Amino acid sequence: MKILDYSPIPFNGGKLSLQERFKGITRFGFSWVSEMKSQEVVIEILGRLLDNRFTMLRNVPLPEAEIIIPLILLGPQGVVVINNSPMRGIYRASGDSWEIMDNRSRNFKATRPNLITRTLMMTRAFNNFLTQKGYALENDGILVFTDPGIHVNATRSDVRIILVDAVERFASRLLLNRPVMDVEDVRSIIHSLEVAMQPEEEPEAEVKIVPHQQVAQSVDSGFMQAISPLQKRANFSRRQWTLLGAFVLMDILILIAFLVFILWTA
């Protein structure tokens, strides 16, 4: 199975610098690391069973929908949108409702994020993308949990829920399905996605100098002309002269404030 990674911050198996880890958590939340590890669990299992006719797209941004789809599997049997989760606990899914069991009352209550509706949103968004690009394909959306410490009581859930020990069975059944597209179709979809990801080029805006910018430029020019003879003698750089001027100005302001204070108290 081929893998194309469109992650804004490549995870590289968790080999992250401190800066990369901080950037990922700041941008995507504290669950980012565990979610990326969860993706790699799914990829590793499917990679053992699916050959190079299949391509896994990782963290695909849909510009028009303004969402990132964690995993999209493309192959002869069609398209599968995969929403993975490292969550654990006891949950209940029915229709588009998503509930967790309260440890104290032992009753189920609605919880966020609703992974059922999130998976549905991703699936519909990618379906809309395919339709707009002229592909007559209906993709399936599945919700995969990679932590063995989760139990889901699903009753007619709006999306298919798969636990980690059933991922291999899912892949085996997928291979038995009737092929609906060939290698060229897969390449065409990937090309359409990559074209859509490209940022639109904006025309260069004309730089207009407003009055206060003109004053600033005039003052700066005058200052450099005034210090030009000294600059030749002292051989100071422009930055050094600017710092020196700032210190002198600060001393003058402190002196004025001191004189005002004396006059006021007198």
Could you characterize what this model shows?
This protein has 7 helices and 10 strands. With 266 residues, it is an alpha/beta fold. It has 2 domains: 2-197, no CATH class; 211-265, no CATH class. It starts with a strand and ends with a helix. It has a 6-stranded mixed sheet, sandwiched between helices. Strand 3 and strand 4 (78-85) form a beta hairpin.
Keywords, separated by commas or semicolons:
elongated; 6-stranded mixed β-sheet; 266 residues; 7 helices; alpha/beta; 4-stranded mixed β-sheet; 10 strands
Q: How are the SSEs placed, and which strands pair?
A:
Elements: E1 2-5, H1 18-28, H2 32-49, E2 55-62, E3 67-75, E4 78-85, E5 89-95, E6 97-101, E7 108-110, H3 115-132, E8 140-145, E9 150-157, E10 160-163, H4 167-176, H5 183-197, H6 211-234, H7 238-265
Parallel strand pairs: 1-2, 4-8, 5-9, 8-10
Antiparallel strand pairs: 2-3, 3-4, 5-6, 6-7
Helix pairs in contact: 2-4
